[in-house]
Design goal:
Blueprint (H helix, E strand, L loop, with lengths): L1 H31 L4 E17 L2 E16 L22 H28 L3 E4 L7 E4 L4 H4 L7 E5 L2 E2 L3 H10 L3 E10 L4 E10 L1 E2 L8 E2 L2 E4 L4 E2 L21 E5 L2 E2 L3 H8 L3 E8 L2 E8 L1 E2 L7 H13 L10 E2 L2 E3 L5 E4 L27 E5 L2 E2 L3 H7 L7 E4 L13 H7 L3 H9 L9 E2 L2 E3 L6 E2 H7 L1 H15 L4 H16 L1 E2 L4 E2 L2 E4 L3 H20 L11 H15 L1 H19 L7 H14 L5 H34 L1
Helix pairs in contact: 1-2, 1-14, 1-15, 2-13, 2-15, 2-16, 10-11, 13-15, 14-15
């Protein structure tokens, strides 16, 4: 708790500093133009601290976000026309006023650029691999992209006819809600070291996970490393404690698939598939087979009686029709006899395997000798293991994967670290008497059995504390409809199988030159503004003061002071950009008024200015309140 408070204080101090240098720019230029400065304030509202120095009132407002420099004559005083106040703001030449107005944003731009220079000069920031990789982490199974056999590990090179720079391109496209997206890239076969180009134009659909304002083509996550966090082995989850996994192990492979993301891992844990080891004509092969409820299959009476006998002898109380099997009949020696038909043949396609290296249909005479790495002796053993098959993991235990590389080389480095040769050595003998558990830096873990979140919460104290805290928060929701919706999601989440360990990504060095950092930040701000004006993006997705504090706090905590420094630079750039916009209440508005006077040789009446400024003041305050409310809602939503 104290740590969070400290981060929040540091974030507020950082934002206050940006406001301070912005106003300092106005202050020094006003002094240079011989304008009379009355007040210099950091923050708005009632002063909590104030003092006088050289006839200037310095103060700190109760609201730390924002600030101002009050120059004489910026508003009507004692009935005087501000233009008549000689040492006031409007008493000076229009060019002097432009200099004063521009200097605040200019200081923010200069500060941002200097920050980027510092970051670049010390070697760049630590960033997670997934932010800039071209590799896909997970594809929605309901998407057209999935049907086109684009899968985790495949690479994107162009997105909407522009070079692909990272997952932010996907997120930006999801917000703009275009009806179609053109995507180019490569389908990658890592086992055969082959790449096949693809070029698709995909129709978008509503992204249910993110909300109705977002669209997607099905790419739900970028690729990432899955590295066990450096925790004491005694604190491992009940599922993994006997697996022989070690701290800093990278989960590399699971049940026939190279791992590219948490979502892919969760899909494997909850897919209800069995990784089989099969003896076929004296050769060992492996197959990933979807399991089917017995009630969905046309089982011969004799085979169904055999399964019921297995259920009885193993004292399984569940009704036979609710148990699972493979869509093949087999004898008491676990030898395949023939494929079985489905009761509803339209569902047969759901159980076909065509997307991985182990999509192998079984043949008559195949002898199943292991399920999920667990060797079996007979048909009864096979049937029991199929009810809750174990998951096989291969990990990488190699310090070289923690060597920080440049973001420019990270995709190549990812491929080089896969060690397909050693992976194949281990996989070749899985589930056989000749099974090997190590090849170079790769290790085969003991087979594990994932469990539902609810069960994990009851077995693991640390996991349970977070789980039941979320449940308590949902039960405290006063709106019955919202509570029901939240409970429905929570119940679904509770049934999801997990292994109960925290997995982190690899860190890379992100160090583009300062000009690129500045131009990227400027372009990002510009695109966001245009999207807001055109109605493409809802303002509820903007961050206000609370959201900004959250970003700085999280950045500092996760990636250190350089990341927090970058965000200060980026926010400073945004502050400068927004203030220079030609809106009456902002610095850019004063520039427009002064330019109008220079061009027309006519002064704008103060009443006219006030009529223009007041509506924008109301809009600005309303906007700040609006985004602040949504900042709070996002924090609550992310907590759940």
């Amino acid at each position: 708790m104290m740590e969070n408070i400290l981060y929040i204080i540091l974030a507020i101090l950082g934002l206050s500093f940006l406001v301070f240098i912005h106003e300092l720019g106005h202050y020094f230029m006003a002094k240079r133009a011989k304008m009379k400065i009355e007040t210099f304030s950091i923050g708005f509202g009632k002063p909590i601290l104030s003092w006088y120095r050289k006839n200037i009132k310095w103060q700190i407002g109760i609201l730390p976000f924002g600030g101002f420099v009050k120059i004489a004559g910026m508003q009507k005083e004692d009935g005087k026309d501000p233009y008549e106040i000689k040492d006031g703001y409007f008493g000076r030449k229009p060019l002097d006023r432009i200099k004063v107005s521009v200097m605040g944003p200019l200081v923010n731009f200069v500060f941002a650029f200097l920050v980027f220079v510092v970051i670049w000069s010390v070697g760049g920031r630590n960033k997670p691999f997934h932010e800039y990789t071209k590799k896909i982490g997970y594809v929605d199974k309901k998407s057209e992209l999935f049907d086109l056999k684009v899968k985790p590990g495949d690479e994107i090179i162009q997105y909407n006819n522009k070079p692909y720079t990272g997952f932010t391109d996907v997120l930006h496209a999801s917000i703009t809600n275009g009806k179609e997206v053109e995507i180019k890239g490569y389908k990658v076969n890592y086992f055969q070291n082959q790449r096949y180009p693809f070029d698709y134009t995909i129709k978008t659909y509503t992204d249910v996970e993110k909300g109705k304002d977002f669209s997607t083509i099905g790419i739900q996550m970028p690729a990432r490393y899955l590295i066990l966090e450096n925790i004491a082995l005694g604190s491992l989850s009940p599922v993994m404690k006997d697996s022989e996994i070690k701290a800093k192990d990278r989960l590399l492979w699971a049940n026939g698939e190279i791992l590219f993301s948490n979502m892919q891992l969760s899909d494997i844990l909850n897919s209800n598939r069995a990784f089989l080891t099969i003896l076929r004509d004296d050769k060992i092969i492996h197959a990933n087979i979807n399991l089917v409820k017995i009630s969905h299959l046309k089982n011969p009476i004799s085979f169904k009686n055999d399964l019921d006998d297995y259920r009885y002898f193993k004292k399984i109380k569940t009704n036979l029709n609710d148990l699972y099997s493979i869509p093949y009949s087999f004898d008491e020696n676990a030898k395949v006899k023939k494929p079985l038909n489905f009761v509803d043949e339209t569902k047969a396609l759901q159980f076909s395997n065509t997307r991985d290296a182990y999509s192998v249909p079984l043949q008559k005479g195949d002898k199943i000798i292991a399920v999920g790495g667990e060797r079996i002796k007979n048909g009864a053993n096979l049937f029991i293991e199929l009810q809750n098959p174990k998951i096989l993991f291969i990990t990488q235990r190699d310090s070289k994967i923690f060597t920080k590389v440049s973001y420019k080389d990270m995709n190549k480095n990812f491929d080089e670290n896969l060690d397909i040769k050693s992976l194949n050595q281990i996989v070749k003998f899985l589930g056989t008497p000749n099974e090997i558990t190590q090849a170079d830096s790769l290790y085969l873990l003991k087979p594990i059995k994932p469990i539902a979140r609810e069960e994990m919460a009851n077995l693991d104290k640390a996991y349970g504390n977070e789980y039941f805290e979320i449940k308590r928060k949902i039960e405290a929701i006063k709106n019955p409809k919202q509570q029901q919706e939240a409970l429905k999601v929570f119940d679904q989440m509770s049934k999801t199988k997990v292994i109960g360990v925290a997995l982190s990504d690899q860190v890379v060095k992100y160090n583009p030159n300062p000009l690129k950092m500045f131009s990227d930040g400027f372009k990002n701000t510009y695109q966001t503004l245009i999207s807001l004006i055109t109605g493409v993006v809802s303002p509820k997705y903007l961050s206000g003061p609370i959201g900004i504090v959250q970003v700085v706090k999280i950045s500092f905590k996760a990636y250190g002071p350089l990341e927090a420094l970058y965000w200060l630079g980026f926010i400073s750039l945004n502050l400068g950009f927004l203030n220079i916009l030609p809106i009456p209440v902002l610095d850019g508005g004063h520039v427009v008024f002064s330019l109008f006077e220079i061009i027309t040789k006519k002064r704008i009446k103060i009443k006219t200015m006030e009529r223009l400024i007041i509506p924008f003041v109301v809009l600005l305050i309303g906007g700040i309140l609006f985004v602040t409310v949504h900042d709070i809602l996002r924090i609550v939503k992310n907590f759940f």
